[in-house]
């Protein structure tokens, strides 16, 4: 039976070639759909601790690092080694000292309740164990923090149910294509 590219590669990192193609595509995407404009939908403040889950080549991590300033921190997380390499390289090139990269497919080893904002863009659909990823998000997010998801591969109802269905998060609002969730009690 036919399986989409997304389904076929679910659970395993892309090949290096695919990752490079995706990165090249994102360079063009970012001209038309500016990461800075998209991130205006997430309330990132100066000094915040922010986690970009599924950072890819780091389009959003770079903008977030500028928004939080030198006393804030951005954790750029991805399972693909090339993503980590690319983000580290971009951070050095831009003189950004507030980005920490983490290579993982779920657990971050960060302390509990230290993150103000988690955003996960165009990545949630590829999780094979979303329950585990959501538990990790819930663990590291401050009680008054927020989780922002954008994923054009999923229908709105499915996306909201996937996030809220486990009882860890509640849907708060939608701004453009970005869905905001807060922690349930
Ligand atoms: C389509 S890209 C999106 C990159 C970035 N968020 C953006 O929109 O520019 C998805 C990224 O998520 C990463 N990824 C997918 N599943 C993951 C998982 N379970 N844990 C960590 N990273 C994951 C992939 O390696 C890829 O870099």
Walk me through this protein's architecture:
By secondary structure, the chain is of the alpha/beta class. The protein has one domain (5-183): Vaccinia Virus protein VP39 (Rossmann fold). It has helices at residues 5-8, 16-32, 35-39, 59-68, 81-94, 130-140, 156-164; strands at residues 49-53, 73-78, 99-103, 115-121, 141-150, 169-175, 178-183. The chain has a seven-stranded mixed beta sheet with strand order 3-2-1-4-5-7-6, sandwiched between helices. The radius of gyration is 15 Å and the shape is globular. The model is unreliable at 1-8 (pLDDT under 50). Bound molecules: S-adenosylmethionine. Residues 13, 26, 54-56, 59-60, 77-80, 83, 105, 121-123, 126-127 line the site of S-adenosylmethionine. S-adenosylmethionine binds at residues 13, 26, 54-56, 59-60, 77-80, 83, 105, 121-123, 126-127.
Shape: globular
The biggest beta sheet reads: 7 strands, mixed
Which fold name corresponds to the CATH topology?
A: Rossmann fold
Overall tally of structural domains: 1
Number of helices: 7
The percent of residues in helical segments reads 25-40%
Structural class: alpha/beta
Instruction: Provide the residue-averaged pLDDT.
Output: 94
Order of helices and strands: HHHEHEHEEHEHEE
Strand content: 15-25%
Give a quick precis of the structure:
This protein is 38% helix and 25% strand. Strand 4 (115-121), helix 6 and strand 5 form a beta-alpha-beta unit.
SSE diagram, text form:
Layout: H1 5-8, H2 16-32, H3 35-39, E1 49-53, H4 59-68, E2 73-78, H5 81-94, E3 99-103, E4 115-121, H6 130-140, E5 141-150, H7 156-164, E6 169-175, E7 178-183
Parallel strand pairs: 1-2, 1-4, 2-3, 4-5
Antiparallel strand pairs: 5-7, 6-7
The structure holds S-adenosylmethionine.
């Amino acid at each position: 039976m036919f399986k989409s590219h997304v389904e076929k590669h679910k659970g395993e990192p892309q090949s290096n070639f695919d990752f490079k193609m995706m990165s090249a595509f994102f360079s063009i995407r970012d001209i038309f759909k500016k990461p800075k404009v998209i991130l205006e939908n997430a309330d990132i403040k100066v000094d915040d601790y922010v986690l970009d889950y599924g950072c890819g080549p780091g389009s959003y991590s770079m903008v977030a690092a500028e928004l939080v300033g030198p006393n804030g921190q951005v954790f750029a997380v991805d399972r693909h080694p090339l993503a980590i390499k690319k983000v580290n390289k971009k951070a050095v090139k831009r003189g950004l000292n507030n980005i920490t990269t983490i290579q993982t497919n779920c657990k971050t080893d960060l302390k509990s309740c230290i993150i103000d904002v988690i955003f996960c863009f165009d990545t949630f659909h590829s999780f094979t164990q979303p329950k585990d990823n959501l538990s990790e998000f819930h663990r590291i997010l401050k009680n008054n923090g927020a989780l922002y998801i954008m994923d054009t591969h999923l229908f709105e109802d499915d996306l909201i149910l996937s996030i809220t269905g486990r009882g860890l998060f509640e849907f708060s609002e939608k701004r453009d294509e970005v869905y905001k969730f807060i922690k349930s009690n």
